[in-house]
Amino acid sequence: MIMTCSSANSIIICSFLCFCVLLSGSVPAGDYVTLNPETVIQRGDKVQWLFGYKDTLIAEIKGENREKTTHEGPDEIFKNRLKLDETTGSLTIKLIDSEHAGLYTLKIRRGRKTLKKKFHVSVRGESLQSGMRSVMEGDRVFLFSDTEIQTDDEVQWLFGDKEQTVLTEIKNTEVTKYDGTDWRFRDRLELDEETGRLTITKFSAEHAEFYTLKITRGRDKIYKRFYIFVEEWKKTVMEGESFTLKPAREIKKDDVIEWLYGDREQQTLIAKLKGKTGEILTRDDVADERFRGRLELDETTRSLTITNTRTAHTGVYKLDITSSSGFSEQTFTVTVMEEKILKEDSVTLKPDTKIQNDEIQWRFGKENSLIAEIKGGTGVTHDDVPDERFRDRLELNKKTGDLIIKNSKYEHAGPYKLKMQILSFVNEFNELIHLVPE
């Protein structure tokens, strides 16, 4: 659903410096809604989307480069649900549910003028919460009917939201699987004819979607809906290696592809492919230019490759796909490790960048134990964790951020992580330390 301005449902209030428009609309639970500014966003405009009567900031565009940021909102209700278009300023809320109903305010600051537009969104239908589940890549997923299947019932399991595909059915007590019509489900489907339970084996991101159970009982029809999604994909590479992030599903010719980098609080567009024109855009000048000369976007597969990696490329990557049937997304967490082989002696770990008034943290091991930090200009070491192996061995230089491990032993070998809060951006650097005897 797209909400735009029309004289039938808008109230326009004008003043010298502020223009305000109020729109309203209703959306079924599980659908998406796009809130459209219906005005041309100019370079230099500051665009903010606010939610609720407390005006909680959930998305914004600022700066000459139109860098966009989305936020998770109160109680993380907008986590992984917002899509902000940096060109038009439109905001899309995906998988909308009852908790997303309410007032949305768009503010565009242009010089001394401020344009405001308010949208009131209501959500109808049954909440998604009971049917929403997250699974891990490779899991065996069971979808239950929660109702007793009777002898004359016709049972169908459907895949997709708007354009639905029949996966399996029970008709006249005969079970039929249509896993050959969609390559994603080939040899992965199992249907229990007594309970109606559907099993999907080796679940992956390409299977993440709506699943609908339809039971026809005489003249009556019973529906149950599920939304299954995959926890984020994770990968670890060594510094200097390349890695490729691949879409989980087949990309159609007219689909618009966006690759973003950064945590959920600040995601920066680094590559885009416009479906209709085939135009490829890579933005290696953003995110402190850490991607300069390193981005490769495949126009056929739409996969993104980052070459000659550094620890600065550690972080969260997200793929947004916009198609005629809706939206989908994938999240990737990548860790780039710097490997060092050192003799037993003092070890100095250095940040890759000069620190200023930054907050930094040094962490160790798979448990990410905090062993040193600089906050408010004060350096502190925590040498009692884990299991006191760093007792009286740590020194932290609060000017450079260097961490020194004195008289290091085998027990100090392992992964070290440096996390830096630089203004509004978070950098993470990783090193894998191996110690060998002299």
From TrEMBL:
Gene3D superfamilies: Immunoglobulins. Residues 1-29 form the signal peptide. InterPro entries: Ig-like_dom_sf, Ig-like_fold, Ig_sub, Ig_V-set. The keyword Signal applies. Residues 22-124, 130-231, 232-337, 338-438 form the Immunoglobulin domain. Keywords: Signal. This is Immunoglobulin domain-containing protein.
